[in-house]
Design goal:
4 strands, two-stranded antiparallel sheet, mainly alpha, 7 helices
C-alpha cells in the first residue's frame, strides 16, 4: 500500500512535510508522476499545431502550394502551428461549387450555349420557328373544324337504320379515314 505524506510537528510550532514515494492525488487516485495527458487530448493538440511541411505532406501538395493557400485566404498560423482541421474545412469549402445562378459570366456562357443549340437544331430541321408552328396549328384546327362540319351530314346517311354497335364502327371508320387524309397515310 502506498504511503501518504505525513506532517510532523516540530517543537517550535512549525510544521514540516515529510515526502513519501507516492502521494494521494484527487479522489483516491495515487500516482508517482504527474497525471498523463489523454491520447484524445494529444491528438487534438497534434491536429492544431502542424508545420507547413506537415500540412503539405498531409494534403499531398508542395510547401509552395501551402504558401499560395495562405496568400489566397487560408487559415493562418495559430499558437505554434497550423490547424489541420481548419485547413481541411477551408479546402472542403473551396471545393464546393459556387452559386453559379448569380455569376454573370456563367449566365452568359449558358445563354450562348442555348443559342448555339437552337441554331443547330434549326439547321438540322429539328426545330421550327414560332410563326411556322402557329401556322401549322391553325391549319390543323381549320381542317378539323371542316371535317366536323361535314361529318354530321356525311355520317347521317351512313348510319340511318343501323344498330348502335354498327353505328360506332361506321363513325370510327369515318374518322380514321379523315385522319389518314390529314397525315397522308394510305
Amino acid at each position: 500500500m502506498a504511503k501518504h505524506a505525513k506532517v510532523v510537528k516540530k517543537t517550535s510550532g512549525e510544521k514540516t512535510k515529510r515526502s513519501s514515494a507516492t502521494r494521494k492525488i484527487g479522489k483516491g487516485r495515487k500516482s508517482a508522476k504527474p497525471p498523463a495527458i489523454s491520447k484524445r487530448v494529444m491528438r487534438r493538440r497534434a491536429l492544431q499545431s502542424v508545420s507547413q511541411q506537415d500540412l503539405a505532406w498531409v494534403f499531398g501538395v508542395s510547401v509552395q502550394a501551402v504558401s499560395k493557400w495562405l496568400a489566397n485566404g487560408s487559415p493562418g498560423r495559430e499558437s505554434g502551428g497550423y490547424n489541420l482541421r481548419a485547413y481541411h474545412a477551408w479546402l472542403k469549402a473551396r471545393a464546393q461549387p459556387k452559386d453559379l445562378k448569380n455569376d454573370p459570366a456563367h449566365r452568359l456562357k449558358l445563354a450562348q450555349a442555348r443559342r448555339e443549340e437552337k441554331r443547330l437544331a434549326q439547321e438540322l430541321g429539328e426545330l421550327i420557328s414560332k410563326q411556322e408552328a402557329v401556322t401549322r396549328e391553325l391549319k390543323i384546327i381549320r381542317w378539323t373544324v371542316g371535317v366536323m362540319n361535314r361529318a354530321g351530314a356525311e355520317l347521317a346517311s351512313l348510319v340511318t337504320g343501323k344498330r348502335l354497335g354498327e353505328v360506332k364502327r361506321v363513325v370510327a371508320k369515318y374518322f380514321d379515314e379523315r385522319r389518314r387524309e390529314a397525315v397522308g397515310d394510305d
